[in-house]
Amino acid sequence: MKSFYDYDVDNPAERQERYATYPALSKFHMALQDELTDDEYQTYYESEKQLVQQKPAVNNLQSQWIN
């Protein structure tokens, strides 16, 4: 499943699909765009996109029994 940030916002069909799939988040981002400058919004959007795309660190610790 695509994340909110995987859709191409320059493509009207994908923008509609993103809005249908994530209506609350889409409305939040529209309101945010109204409140922030373009630079501020782009900085926020890119930082959120990077957070979503980061993979969680693998837990390499092995469980050990304490004797």
Brief synopsis:
This protein is mainly alpha-helical.
Task: Tell me about this structure.
It is a single chain. The chain is mainly α and 67 residues long. The chain is built from 3 helices and no strands. It has helices spanning 12-21, 23-35, 38-53. Helix 1 packs across helix 2. The longest helix is centred in the last third of the chain and has 16 residues, at 38-53. The chain is elongated, with a radius of gyration of 18 Å. The relative contact order is 0.12.
Structural class, judged by helices and strands? Answer: mainly alpha
What proportion strand? under 5%
Total beta-strand segments: 0
Our measurement of the CA-to-CA distance between the termini, rounded to an integer number of angstroms, reads 45 Å
What is the molecular shape? elongated
Query: How is the main sheet built?
Result: none
Task: Estimate the mean pLDDT confidence.
Answer: 88
What is the gyration radius calculated from CA atoms? 18 Å
Helix percent band: 55-70%
Number of helices: 3
Order of helices and strands: HHH
Low-pLDDT runs: none
Chart the SSEs and their pairings.
Elements (H helix, E strand, L loop, with lengths): L11 H10 L1 H13 L2 H16 L14
Sum up the structure in keywords:
3 helices; mainly alpha; 67 residues
